[in-house]
Amino acid sequence: MKYIILYLILTIPNLIHTQSIHQDKMKVLHALTGIWIGTSSIYEDGEIIKQGAAYEHIYYDLDSSILVIQLNSEYLQLHTIINYDTTDSSYYYHPFSKKGHGRYPAQFEDGRLVVQPNDTTRYIFEGTANNGFREYGEKLVNGQWQKTFEDNFKNTQ
């Protein structure tokens, strides 16, 4: 019993501190939350080749320890989880689709969440004027970032 009490005395303060850091890091993503309706555009060589309606529901779950993104558009259905890992001080983006799933590192910088699955691909999530929201993807081609898709949303809440 003494060992259990000693263990609790030693570990509870660390758990509370870790949880506080984690929650603070997740709070910065609050502007992404909402029920969003908008347009999804697919790009090729700088030109829109497809455009259609899109719906996205973004919300916190598990006591605000994760951010859940549910995207439905004419071109893609995606269920994504974003979390912050205190062990390596990084965000992680976990997309799930019919084709499979992934785990990609992300950074929150200049008010934007930037996900970079590899050296030539990135996804950016950011607020826009009038409480809007957009996400877009880019690929690096000959040293220049080229847009591959862009989703623009308005919050319905």
Can you describe this structure?
This protein is α+β, with helices and mostly antiparallel strands. The chain has one domain: Beta Barrel (Lipocalin). It contains 1 helix and 11 strands. The protein has one helix at residues 2-27; strands spanning 34-44, 47-61, 66-73, 77-85, 90-97, 100-101, 104-109, 112-118, 121-128, 132-141, 144-155. A 10-stranded antiparallel barrel has the order 1-2-3-4-5-7-8-9-10-11. The longest helix has 26 residues, at 2-27. The protein is globular and about 45 Å long. The model is unreliable at 5-18 (pLDDT under 50).
Blueprint of the fold:
Blueprint: H1 2-27, E1 34-44, E2 47-61, E3 66-73, E4 77-85, E5 90-97, E6 100-101, E7 104-109, E8 112-118, E9 121-128, E10 132-141, E11 144-155
Antiparallel strand pairs: 1-2, 1-11, 2-3, 3-4, 4-5, 5-6, 5-7, 7-8, 8-9, 9-10, 10-11
Label this structure with key terms.
Lipocalin, globular, 157 residues, 17% helix, alpha+beta, 10-stranded antiparallel barrel
* Major beta sheet summary: 10 strands, antiparallel, barrel
Number of continuous helical runs: 1
- How many distinct domains? 1
**Average of the residue pLDDT scores:** 87
Query: What is the string of SSEs from the N terminus onward?
Result: HEEEEEEEEEEE
Topology-level CATH name: Lipocalin
Q: Which stretches are low in confidence, meaning pLDDT under 50 for 5 or more residues running?
A: 5-18
Summarize this, please?
With about 160 residues, this protein is an alpha+beta fold. The chain has one domain (about 1-155): Lipocalin. The chain has 1 helix and 11 strands, in the order αβββββββββββ.
